[in-house]
Hints:
By secondary structure, the protein is mainly alpha-helical. Helices cover 72% and strands 0% of the residues. It has a single domain (2-191), classed as Tetratricopeptide repeat domain (Serine Threonine Protein Phosphatase 5, Tetratricopeptide repeat), CATH 1.25.40. Mean pLDDT is 77; it is low at 142-157 and 161-200.
Amino acid sequence: MKNKFEQGVQFLKAAEFAKALDIFDELILNEPDKAHYYSERGVVHFHMSSKHRSLKDMDKAIDLEPFKSYRYSSRAYIRGHYGMLEDAIQDYKKAIDLDPEDAVAHNNLGLLLEQRGYKKYANVSFKKADELAEIAEKKGRTDIGARGEEIEFKNLQKEIDEAQETQSLRGELKKLFTKEGRASFFQFLKSGFKLKDKED
Length: 200
């Protein structure tokens, strides 16, 4: 099933969403207790502008793995995209409770708090995110934003987290000084992360 999963991820990255959906549907049918299958299918539904199905799959992933911070961060991003800011804030807070060292969750929480006008609290989150990012850089960590996820299953969700991070120039300007950062930034600009919102 691992190869099948990776095939689905590749279709997802290639924006071949219908093919990716078929694969994740099949995987879930055969192994309905795998949280990462639901999570990735939720990402597919998100890109297909299916709010209800996307959130339903993220809810299921959390039900199956309620102690993985990454599950809450993933749902938080989607909730934030659809304007469910208070719910998204609560998800990021839960993610941070489970993993206080998740720099991306702190940063994204700051972005949402800033949108809500809570600048003082947003700055606290930004400061914490910067501190954790610096510590991680010194330690050579490369898995920020995907904590709790098995390494072979790191995929587009991590890129989604990074995409939201680029919405804040404060974090992105640091990245632009690296070759990888510039490539990531220009890819984000190219894709635009534009979606047409519609209900099922």
